[in-house]
Each structure stands twice: as C-alpha cells, then as structure tokens.
Fold PqiC family protein.
Amino acid sequence: MTRNALFALACLAAVGACSNPMKTGRYLIDPPVTGERVPDRIGSAELKDVSLPGYASGDEVAWQSGDGAVRLANRSLWADQPQRAFTQTLARTISDLSGATVIAEPWPLSEPPRKKLEVRVEKALAQADGVYRLSGRYFVADDAAGGSNQARSFDISVPMASDEPAAIAAAQSTAISQLARQIATLGGPGQSIRTSTPRSSSIFSEALPGFEGL
C-alpha cells in the first residue's frame, strides 16, 4: 500500500472518530419537578434573554480545574443554545412554581405584560471545590403608578456529585430551579422601589408640529 493511501485511510479514521455520536455527549438543562407552589407575586412578565458570562454561553460544558482555570469540554456539549435554554427554562419554572405568566421575549400575547424581568448572571460555574455556583442580579420593572420595582441579588451554591458533565448539568438545573423560586417570591438581598411617575405614551411625550411655542 502506498504512502498516500495510508495517509488517506488515517484521515478517514480520524473523521470517523470525530463523527461518532457515542463520543460526544449533549446535556439538557432540566430542573427537577418538586410540586412546590408559592404565591404569585409577579403576575405577567416578559423575561429578557438572560445575560450569561462568555464561558457559560458557548456550546461546551465549562468547569474550573484545580489550577483555577476555566476549561471547556470539547466532547461534552449542551443540547440547546445555553442562553436560550436558560431563559426558556427559567421562565417556565417561575410560572410552574407560582402560577404567574412569565414568558421569554418576544412577548407573544395581544395583552401586554404588566412587568419586565431581567436577569444578569455574573457567575455560572462548576467550581474546583465541587460546588456549582450561580450568582448575579435580577430586576423586576413595573411601570404602573405605585408599582413595585425590584433590584435584588442572588448567590446560589449547589454541591455536585462529581465533576462529570452529567453531574454539572444536574447541578445547574437545580440552581436554576432555586433561582426561579427566589424570583417568584421576590427574595434575596436588595431593595424595592415604588414607581412614582408612570411611563407616558410616546404620542403625548413629544410636542406636536406647530405647537412647540405654546
């Protein structure tokens, strides 16, 4: 067999190994169903796309090694785009827990939401100490007169059974479930601010042509 033929066979073998589905795992974000119910303190709210750190927004499952570096598992991938999966799962879990109508943007209903919900994640990491850490801030905006606006933080730690991707996915799912409960109950350190001036309609906020000097 010629050298070129051997090289071609080696390339085919490499491609076959990379394309083998059994060598690549895809993991779901799937919070456990607890059956718990809490009072509805949200009502209807549009959830903006959750802001994630760069290492947590890629396809690869990330973890922190003993030297403190954040590493990516090339053959351990998320089954869905992380930002989309996190946002959709969080909205559904808040709704299931409380009975609120929380829907990820864009809002699909003809009746507009009463509130806007935004979540900014600062850390979403399987740490080297065996704990999955989810921390950041969330904001609930209510434009109605006398509405309650929330600016609160969260810092959730979930022990991991191991540092395997499946255990990381399970811990992250549990952390999202705990975050959903905190948001549903408007819990966590922070403050509540009453809306003093409701947002006016844009048709009344601008002067009409010819009436600027009146």
Observations:
- The CA atoms of residues 67 and 128 lie 8 Å apart.
- The mean pLDDT is 86.
- The chain has four helices and nine strands.
